[in-house]
Design goal:
The chain has four helices and eleven strands. It is α/β, with parallel strands linked by helices. It has one domain: Collagenase (Catalytic Domain). The strands form two sheets. Strands 1, 2, 3, 4, 5, 6, 7, 8 and 11 form a nine-stranded mixed β-sheet that branches. Strands 9-10 form a two-stranded antiparallel ribbon. It is globular, with a radius of gyration of 18 Å. The two termini are about 30 Å apart. The relative contact order is 0.19. The N terminus is likely disordered.
């Protein structure tokens, strides 16, 4: 999972499907009085440790229509610049770092507050940035999600295939819809779109097409 602090244009969660690889792109901008490079680096390491591979260190894959796709992450982190204007245009994700025991949260999937300390916080909230829903209720974790990152976010939990599927399912469904539309527009059997629709596809996640919508 490549990590860096240089973010030239600030994109939201973008899923790029090219050939047999689906790459999840994200940029997260950290601010607040309690932020520091060390804090951001700790967040980055936690996200990479939890989301970069499965628990056995194997790369993630995704199955769709009988084909196996490789899953890659391209995540950029950076510190917010002094007096930087926050523009909520669907392309920027902002996180305020707080040094309290208040709950961490993401609002509208592009703005939130994260606790400065707390194991599992960054991995859990990153799941929300990608559109995943909480897997707990007032009484605790939902059945079957007790050790999952999207359960109650204290302690070291883990990501599993259900999380990866939850991020990618709607993107691949949208690609199928694109392919069906192309085949309707170009129904001739020798049309390249009829025989093999293009594989390159991009999809953006926002609050309107998240996992629970």
């Amino acid at each position: 999972m490549p990590l860096c602090y240089v973010d030239p244009d600030g994109r939201d969660i973008r899923i790029a499907i090219k050939g047999n690889t689906a790459t999840i792109h994200a940029n997260i901008i950290f601010g607040g009085r309690d932020v520091s490079g060390n804090v951001v680096n700790a967040y980055a390491q936690e996200i990479a440790r939890n989301w970069g591979t499965d628990r056995n260190g194997n790369p993630w894959t995704y199955e769709h229509n009988g084909q196996t796709y490789n899953v890659a992450f391209d995540i950029n982190f950076r510190l917010e610049k002094p007096n930087e204007r926050r523009i909520f245009n669907g392309e920027n994700n902002y996180v305020e770092v707080i040094d309290t025991n208040s709950p961490s949260e993401m609002r509208n999937y592009n703005y939130g507050t994260w606790r400065k300390n707390g194991e599992g916080v960054a991995a859990h909230e990153f799941g929300h940035i990608m559109g995943l829903m909480d897997r707990y209720a007032e009484g605790g974790d939902l059945p079957g999600w007790e050790s999952n990152t999207m359960g109650v976010n204290y302690g070291e939990k883990h990501v599993d295939q259900r999380n990866i599927d939850g991020v990618l399912d709607k993107a691949f469904d949208a690609m199928d819809q694109r392919d069906a539309m192309l085949q309707q527009r170009f129904p001739i059997s020798n049309s390249p779109y009829f025989q093999k629709p293009p594989t390159d596809f991009e999809y953006y996640i926002n609050r309107y097409n998240s996992e629970n919508k």
